[in-house]
Amino acid sequence: MWYIIIFALLAVLLVIAGFVAYGRRKDEMRGMERGAGTGAGHTRAPVPAHPAAQKHEPAVREPGASGGVFRKEGLGPRIKHLFHGGVSDETWATLEDLLLKADLGPKASSDLVARVKADYTHGANPESLVHQEILTVLGPDESLHLDGGLNVVLVVGVNGAGKTTTIGKLAKRLTHEGKTVSLAASDTFRAAAGEQLEVWAQRAGAHLVSQERGADPGAVAFDAVKAAEARHADVLIVDTAGRLHTKQPLMDELGKVKRVIEKAGAEVGETLLVLDAQTGQNGIAQARAFTDAVEVTGVVLTKTDGSAKGGVVLAVREELGVPIRFVGVGEGPDDLRPFEAEAFAERLLSG
Ligand code: GDP
């Protein structure tokens, strides 16, 4: 009889325990469902960020915003944000990505990351390391090398890059500094190139030597050297044709113009390559055709007032190995500025 009572009590206890366990499990399930809906469930394991997700540009809190408003900022704040939670291989890969997006090009981006990585120590300010490396890539600012006697400046570049406009602006700048300037219209191929240069010559107070369309560019350069010498000019700026930059005849023609100038008794002191900043990385490849053909001593980067990203300046410097002398900041006669590396680095980083 006692056995039966004890057995019955045990059976009741088992049933009660079973109900309690079932109730607890149900509560847990409800909690998990709630957590999945709001992201706040404490029973959920944290989901590790996918490496690809970390590659996205970090959003940066807008300064002064009370919270919740995010927008993209300059390179500097993004770099700071990137290094915020520690440094890993992913950090360096993302930094390279940021630089590529700013149009630095593959070589300048990977070289810059390698140098910053070599210099980086725990707690260092990554933004100022990048700033420093940008200045190292750019080197010291160099203005035009002009000395006594006649200084000949050959200007090369593809059509549309802004050669004629740049020659006009440069002539204005030099006459403003008190120099006597002559211009040679050696682009005898492009329709109206001579007329366009004449307008700029008048604006700048420079003397122009030109011939009819289709004339020999070398002959124009030869006459221009003689005329500039006769007028005791300080600077002769020579325009050149810019069509078919991929074809050998143009490059041969550039070499010929240079030789004729020397034959006329002058020396080409500077060869400036005019490059449209808007063409980005394509412009670099295009520029190489010129640097291979003539000894380019400086670059003028035009149309920097447009939508071009600043990084192209570093790509030009790193990939062509030629200093940037001037930047074009508009279409007006005064819209040519000497390039200043420090100011450039600051603008690129601050956005
Ligand atoms: P070229 O064929 O190389 O001689 O080029 P041009 O001097 O004729 O310039 C082509 C176009 O680019 C013209 O409409 C110029 O006004 C324009 N341009 C040249 N430089 C600049 C610049 O720095 N900024 C802007 N916004 N436009 C420019």
Helix-strand layout with pairing:
Layout: H1 2-38, H2 51-55, E1 60-61, E2 70-71, H3 75-83, H4 89-101, H5 106-119, H6 126-138, E3 151-156, H7 163-176, E4 181-185, H8 193-204, E5 207-209, H9 217-230, E6 235-239, H10 248-263, E7 268-276, H11 280-293, E8 298-302, H12 312-320, E9 324-328, E10 336-338, H13 341-350
Parallel strand pairs: 3-6, 3-7, 4-5, 4-6, 7-8, 8-9
Antiparallel strand pairs: 1-2, 9-10
Helix pairs in contact: 3-4, 4-5, 5-6, 5-12, 6-13, 7-8, 9-10, 11-12
Bound molecules: guanosine-5'-diphosphate.
Could you explain how this protein is built, in words?
With 351 residues, the protein is an alpha/beta fold. It contains 13 helices and 10 strands. An 8-stranded mixed beta sheet has the order 5-4-6-3-7-8-9-10, with helices on both faces. Strands 1-2 form a two-stranded antiparallel sheet. A hairpin with a 7-residue loop joins β9 and β10. The protein starts with a helix and ends with a helix. The model is unreliable at 25-72 (pLDDT under 50). Guanosine-5'-diphosphate (GDP) binds next to α7. Guanosine-5'-diphosphate binds next to α7.
